[in-house]
C-alpha cells in the first residue's frame, strides 16, 4: 500500500529517534565547549547548520581558538572526515535518482544517518529518497537544537569541559553496538575491527585511519563482488 507523504515523514521521524537522544546530548556538549572557548550561540548555530560534521566540529573548536591556518584546517578536516569518502561510496546507487534532494542528502550524510539508511530499507520505494531526505533533516535538526541549547546553557551555568570530546566516541560505539545486534552478518563489523586494530599497531594513533579505511573498503568490495557472482550463478 502506498503511503502518503505525511505518513512517510512520520516514519522518518520514528527511524531517527535513536539518533535524537545522542545528537542532542552531543550537540549540547559541542555548544558548551564552543562557549567555553569564547564563541557564542551564533557560532554554534552557524557551524551546526553549515558544517554539520560532528567530530570535526569538536576539533574545529580547537582550530578556531588556536588561530589555525587555512591549510592546517583543510588538512585536519580531510583527516578527520576521510571515512566519509569510503562509506559514502555504498550510497551512490541509492542516491543516484534523488533529484532535488541529492545535494542536501550528500551534505547531511553523517555516520549515524548512514547507519540508519545503509541497509536500503524504506517504507515506500516510490518515495524512498523523500524518506531519506527527512531522516537526514531530522538528524541535523537534533544536532542544531543541541548545539544551540548547549551554547545557551554554557552562558548561564558553570560546566567543566574536561573529557567532553569523548562523547563522539561514545556515540560511535553505541552505533556499532546497535548495528551488531540488528544483523546476523558480522563479517563487515569484524573486518572493520580487525583492520583498524592492525593499522593502529602498524601506523600508530595519528596515521592509522586512512590505511584502515582503504583496507576495509578493499575487503568489503571483494566480498561484495564474490557474493554478487555467487547469486548470479544461483
Describe the structure concisely.
The protein is mainly alpha-helical and 234 residues long. The chain is built from 12 helices and no strands.
Notes on the structure:
The chain is an all-alpha fold. The chain folds into two domains: 5-164, no CATH class; 184-234. It is built from twelve helices and no strands. The chain has helices at residues 5-36, 41-50, 55-65, 70-80, 82-87, 92-95, 102-107, 111-117, 128-156, 166-182, 187-203, 209-233. Helix 1 (5-36) runs parallel beside helix 9 (128-156) and helix 11 (187-203) runs antiparallel to helix 12. The radius of gyration is 19 Å and the shape is globular. It starts with a helix and ends with a helix. The mean pLDDT is 82.
- Residue windows where pLDDT falls under 50 for at least 5 positions: none
Structural class: mainly alpha
Number of structurally distinct domains: 2
Q: Rg to the nearest angstrom?
A: 19 Å
Mean pLDDT: 82
**Overall 3D shape:** globular
Question: Tally of extended strands?
Answer: 0
Distance from N terminus to C terminus (CA atoms, Å) equals 31 Å
Helix amount: over 70%
Biggest beta sheet attributes:
none
The fraction of residues in strands falls at under 5%
* Order of SSEs: HHHHHHHHHHHH
Number of helix segments? 12
Helices and strands in order, then pairings?
Layout: H1 5-36, H2 41-50, H3 55-65, H4 70-80, H5 82-87, H6 92-95, H7 102-107, H8 111-117, H9 128-156, H10 166-182, H11 187-203, H12 209-233
Helix pairs in contact: 1-9, 2-9, 3-4, 8-9, 11-12
Amino acid at each position: 500500500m502506498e503511503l502518503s507523504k505525511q505518513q512517510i515523514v512520520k516514519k522518518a521521524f520514528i527511524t531517527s529517534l535513536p539518533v535524537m537522544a545522542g545528537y542532542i546530548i552531543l550537540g549540547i556538549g559541542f555548544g558548551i565547549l564552543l562557549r567555553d572557548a569564547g564563541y557564542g550561540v551564533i557560532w554554534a548555530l552557524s557551524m551546526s547548520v553549515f558544517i554539520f560534521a560532528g567530530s570535526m566540529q569538536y576539533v574545529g573548536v580547537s582550530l578556531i581558538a588556536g588561530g589555525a591556518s587555512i591549510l592546517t584546517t583543510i588538512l585536519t578536516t580531510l583527516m578527520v572526515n576521510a571515512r566519509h569518502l569510503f562509506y559514502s561510496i555504498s550510497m551512490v546507487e541509492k542516491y543516484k535518482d534523488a533529484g532535488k534532494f541529492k545535494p542536501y542528502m550528500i551534505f547531511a550524510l553523517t555516520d549515524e544517518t548512514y547507519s540508519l539508511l545503509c541497509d536500503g530499507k524504506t517504507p515506500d520505494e516510490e518515495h524512498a529518497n523523500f524518506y531519506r531526505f527527512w531522516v537526514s533533516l531530522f538528524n541535523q535538526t537534533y544536532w542544531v537544537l543541541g548545539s544551540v541549547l548547549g551554547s545557551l546553557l554554557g552562558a548561564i551555568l558553570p560546566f567543566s569541559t574536561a573529557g567532553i570530546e569523548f562523547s563522539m566516541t561514545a556515540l560511535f560505539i553505541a552505533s556499532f553496538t546497535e548495528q551488531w545486534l540488528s544483523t546476523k552478518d558480522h563479517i563487515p563489523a569484524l573486518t572493520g575491527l580487525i583492520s583498524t586494530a592492525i593499522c593502529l599497531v602498524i601506523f600508530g594513533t595519528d596515521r592509522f585511519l586512512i590505511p584502515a579505511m582503504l583496507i576495509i573498503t578493499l575487503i568489503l568490495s571483494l566480498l561484495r563482488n564474490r557474493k554478487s557472482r555467487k547469486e548470479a550463478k544461483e
